[in-house]
Amino acid sequence: MPRELEVVSPRAGLMRAFLSSWAALVYLFLFVPIGLLVAFSFNANKYGTFPFTGWTTHWYGQVFGDYQIKDALTTTLRVAIFVTIVSTIVGTAAAFPLVRSKLPFRSAVRVGMTLPIMIPGLLIGVSLLVFLTNVFHLQLSVWTAIVGQSVYTTPFVLLIVAARLQGFDQSLERAASDLGANTFNRMRYVVLPLIAPAVFAGALFAFTLSLDEFIITLFLIGGSNTLPLYIYTQVKFGITPEVNALATLLLLASLVLIALAFVLPTATRRLRLAVRARRVAG
Amino acid sequence: MAATPQPAYAGAPAAVSPPRRGVVARLSQYTGFTPAIVLFGGFFLAPMVLIVLYSFWETVNYNTVHHFTFSNYSYFFSTSTYVRTLIDTVWVAAVATFLTLAAAFPLAYWLARYVRPAIRRPLLLLVILPFWTSYLLRVYAWLNILGPEGAMNRFLHWIGLTSQPVSFFLYDRPAVILVLAYLYFPFAALTLYASLERFDWDQFKAAMDLGATPFTALRRIMLPQIKPGITTSVIFVFIPILGEYLTPQLVGGAKGVMIGNLIANFFVGAQYTRGAAAALLITAVIVVLLIVFRRSLEVRDAYAP
């Protein structure tokens, strides 16, 4: 079709060249900042910037030796694990009635449940801060941060699981009950295995979002530090190559987790099909 | 997940559900909402309601007095710096949204029209990739470029344009807008692409066969059809920018302050009632926008893998 269009308009070729160069510029715009960050983390220059004075992995050594970073990492992982558990359970449970019940104002409920994504994290943070400290007189801790982050991550799980449930063939369940399966067995052997990939992907997303979350945590965690908070306090004093190295490691972690979230559901499905095929053949 | 068996069945096909349903059965189909109601009701809705109340209360000697008043709002609107900041915030959000869409549209158009379907997906994935990495780190990455010792200054120095570092790039509004456009670009590109992908290019050809110039065809044939996609991307870029805190904080300096920084400062300074009023103003703008454009909010597979 593009060829035909070029015949119609002689300027189409020119247009295409322009758009292609624009696209190239856009990809540069997207990846040069991240690329520079990674490059600087291997740069021997102790100011963490230009010029390149040599290749080193020294800063990574410093990252791994830094007890503050180790502390922050422990806190980050603790928070992320609890946030993942809470948002996976709450999000998955809510996805069922959202998709399947005879819900009046379904789209309104859906928008309402995804509101924590649309409302700035800052507002979630400060409102919970006032609520927990002034009304309940709670001490800020990792637990208050976990609650705050869960409010923000749960809608993502909900959306992912609901999308999967929407495409769910309910005749499978009908077949199961025709064959005498009770409520529990239908859930255990039909529904859960089918939505498991989505639940798993949702959990991974929640985990990644929690690792990277900054603003809600800033207001709610009190004295502890997570990795993003640690980076933030360091950045205030200027850029250091050590932070560049830490940032590179964090970027890598998010990318790996997100790749898993995208790849694993399909991979497990294929694996299961293969195993089943073999079982049938054997 | 084992805690959620009931809802799965109550809403299930008629053959599965019992023929007659009482009130209990009708309510039991919503059981799955219980944890969500606790989480969102207790830790999202209730705090928001509290903020509304606070905005109508008074702070006297660092204590909140439960006494109905509009003074927090009148204080906000009578302080010219605050009003200025509010206007600037909307302005920055508008400019950043416009630039983001203006940059994203040609890319989406190129992807949908000129790129072979086989490599479209990987190219699209590359656009979205930064979106899934840390927000803080993407802002931080720009500090490497915009700072006084950053790549931009070094580059200008190297080509001989400047003799000493200029701080023009950092701690000002243009830097904020640039970084915001960077942060929200993936979102705009993805939504625009999603609507351009469904566009039937033969209509374009037909329009031009009938004598339309490419521009007329674009304006009168394509734009009306992809308008929902444009609205969605505007909403999804404009709204989050209204509540930005981190970007102005890190690259904006004193001249780039946005309403989010103002709100944070109120709360850090224990001026809860004034902070609540400022927070509510911005929330009100967002909620009104969400209600007006609710039809564009159908969240599609942008999130789902």
Features:
heterodimer; A: 282 residues; MetI-like fold; 2 domains; 80% helix; 0% strand; B: 305 residues; mainly alpha; 14 helices; 69% helix; globular
Structure, described:
The complex is a heterodimer of chains A (282) and B (305). With 282 residues, chain A is mostly helical. Chain A folds into 2 domains: 40 residues; 223 residues, MetI-like fold (Orthogonal Bundle), CATH 1.10.3720. Helix content of chain A is 80%, strand content 0%. In chain A, helix 4 packs parallel to helix 8, helix 4 crosses helix 10 and helix 9 packs antiparallel against helix 10. The model of chain A has no long low-confidence stretch (mean pLDDT 86). By secondary structure, chain B is mainly α. Chain B has 2 domains: 31 residues, no CATH class; 221 residues, MetI-like (MetI-like fold, Orthogonal Bundle), CATH 1.10.3720. Helix content of chain B is 69%, strand content 2%. Classes of the chains: A mainly alpha (282), B mainly alpha (305). Chains A and B meet through helix 1, helix 2, helix 4, helix 5 and helix 6 of A and helix 1, helix 3, helix 5, helix 7 and helix 9 of B.
Tally the helices of chain B: what do you get? Answer: 14
Which quaternary structure do these chains form? Answer: heterodimer
Radius of gyration of chain B: 25 Å
- What is the fourth-level CATH superfamily of the largest domain in chain B? MetI-like
As for the number of domains of chain A, it is: 2
What CATH architecture of the largest domain in chain B would you give? Orthogonal Bundle
Short characterization:
With 282 residues, chain A is mostly helical. Chain A folds into two domains: 2-41; 59-281, MetI-like (MetI-like fold). In chain A, 80% of the residues lie in helices and 0% in strands.
